[in-house]
Amino acid sequence: MTATTSGLTAVHAGVLDYSAAWDEQRRLHEAVVSGERGDTVLLLEHPSVYTAGKRTEPWDRPVDGTPVIDVDRGGKITWHGPGQLVGYPILRLPDPVDVVAYVRRVEQLLIDVCAEFGLAAGRIEGRSGVWVPADDRGPARKVAAIGIRVAREVTLHGFSINCDCDLTYFDRIVPCGIRDAGVTSLTAELGRPITVADVLPVVDRHLSTLLAP
């Protein structure tokens, strides 16, 4: 399925193997760089996979020998899999390129999506992604992750938001290299099932947040 909103084309790709999605990202990136295609966001789920960004340390990786795919995005190691919505915006950034401002827009998109479901989430200084603040249930915990790359003024990689995924997959790694905080999901925080199918149309509605004002 493809939907267009505010100059962005959202492609709903269903469940897609990580390597196939990476090939599609690169194909779209070339098309956006060359001007053959406008800004596009791939929205999908992956079969279970660990991916490691450029800043991943050896001790962040699984201790049980679980395979990891090394990728050229920023950030450290994370997990993708069923019950998690992944977004890959392939967008041309305005000149001069301001990567930090773009990351803030991605964060705002995710914060607004969480708010629609009744979850108050936000930023933590010095840490990427979107977080549920520490409370009587435990320390701060990440509900959405961000890892991007910009090449030739066009973005790659993107974000993931945990809907109703199996959070034990994060137990094998140090998610995003952070040891003193947890990982959570919309379902775990809200105490009711929130699926990828529930979240997808809400993300669609907020995609225009990714565009520079």
TrEMBL record:
The lineage of its organism: Bacteria, Bacillati, Actinomycetota, Actinomycetes, Micromonosporales. In the reaction, the free carboxyl group of octanoic acid is attached via an amide linkage to the epsilon-amino group of a specific lysine residue of lipoyl domains of lipoate-dependent enzymes. This is Octanoyltransferase. Its EC number is 2.3.1.181. It comes from the Bacteria. It catalyses: octanoyl-[ACP] + L-lysyl-[protein] = N(6)-octanoyl-L-lysyl-[protein] + holo-[ACP] + H(+). Residues 35-213 form the BPL/LPL catalytic domain. The record marks 142 as: Lowers pKa of active site Cys. Keywords: Acyltransferase, Cytoplasm, Transferase. The active site is at 176 (acyl-thioester intermediate). PANTHER family: LIPOYLTRANSFERASE 2, MITOCHONDRIAL-RELATED, OCTANOYLTRANSFERASE. It comes from Micromonospora qiuiae.
